[in-house]
Structures are given as structure tokens and as C-alpha cells.
Specification:
The chain has 4 helices and no strands. With 183 residues, it is an all-alpha fold. The longest helix has 82 residues.
Length: 183
């Protein structure tokens, strides 16, 4: 069974990964978390790894996940810096076609996109819970299978000992029969 600390770390990682995804797709303006706060959360996750009761292989796997978050977070920061620098010097030309209708349409489209993103985030959260539950079940199955293998090994040892005892008794009975036989 997985420890509560590991499950909590997994849930925190899922939340941070979701926020990083939102930052990557929607930009800093539509998120409640700044790039710096995201990097702080990633650093906390990295530091918390040393306190978890995990195997070295599992810790390394999780470190790779964190490194991926750091890389994408850093790339996102560079992209946002580039976009903010280029947008600050750029002014759009005046629109003679009536930009208020286009603006409303764009706003509606963004609203639909953010609703869809929230729904996808909720679905991802549900999937994360389901995957966590599956992981716990597979751990239980793994432990049970290991127990069965141990029991089968013990049974094999006991059968070999019983077979060897039977062979010895058969040989002794044959020798006894030979010794008491007159012919």
C-alpha cells in the first residue's frame, strides 16, 4: 500500500503539472499563479522527494518528471518574455471593419476555450485519482502475487522433503524384505 505522503506528493505534482500546462497554453495573464510561484512549487516537490519512502528507481523517475516541469517552465518563461517584449513595441493598425463585433466574438471564443480547459482540467483530475487508485490496486496485487510465490516455494521445498523421506522409507522397506526373506 502506498504511504499517504507519497499520495500527497503525487496529488501535488498533478496540480503543479496542470498549472504549468495552463501557463503554457493560456499564458500568464489567465493564470492565478505566477511563473515564479510555479518554479517555487516545483522546487518544493523536488526537495520533498528525499523524505518519501521510495526506492531509488522511483525517486529517479520522479526527478525526471520534475526536470521536465522545470524545462517546460523555463521555456515558457523565455517565450513569455519574448512575447511581452515584442508586444510592448507593437501597436495594431486601426480596423475599419468595426472591431467591436470581432472583439466580442474573440471574447466569446476565449470564454468557450477557458470553459473547455476547465472541463479538461476536471477530467484530468478525475483521471489522476483513477490512476492513483489503479496504482494502489496493482501494488496490492503485486504484494499478493509475491506472497503466493513464497507459499509455492515453501510447498515445493516441503514436497521435496516428503519425496526424499518416501524414497528412504521405500529403500529401507526393500532392504528389510530382503533381509527377512529366506529365498
Amino acid at each position: 500500500m502506498q504511504s499517504p505522503a507519497v499520495s500527497e506528493w503525487d496529488n501535488d505534482y498533478a496540480r503543479v503539472a496542470r498549472v504549468a500546462s495552463q501557463l503554457r497554453t493560456q499564458g500568464l495573464s489567465s493564470s492565478f499563479v505566477t511563473q515564479q510561484e510555479l518554479e517555487q512549487h516545483v522546487a518544493r516537490l523536488d526537495a520533498a522527494l528525499t523524505t518519501l519512502p521510495l526506492t531509488n528507481a522511483e525517486i529517479q523517475r520522479r526527478r525526471r518528471l520534475i526536470q521536465h516541469l522545470k524545462t517546460t517552465s523555463h521555456n515558457n518563461r523565455n517565450y513569455n518574455d519574448l512575447m511581452s517584449n515584442s508586444n510592448s513595441s507593437y501597436t495594431s493598425p486601426p480596423d475599419s471593419t468595426g472591431s467591436s463585433g470581432v472583439g466580442q466574438q474573440k471574447q466569446q471564443q476565449q470564454s468557450h476555450m477557458s470553459t473547455a480547459m476547465r472541463q479538461q482540467d476536471d477530467m484530468i483530475d478525475e483521471l489522476a485519482v483513477g490512476v492513483s487508485r489503479l496504482r494502489d490496486q496493482t501494488q496490492v496485487i503485486h504484494d499478493e502475487a509475491r506472497m503466493h510465490v513464497n507459499l509455492l516455494g515453501e510447498m515445493e521445498t516441503n514436497l521435496e522433503a516428503a519425496h526424499q523421506g518416501l524414497d528412504e522409507e521405500t529403500k529401507r522397506a526393500a532392504k528389510l524384505k530382503e533381509d527377512q526373506s529366506v529365498w
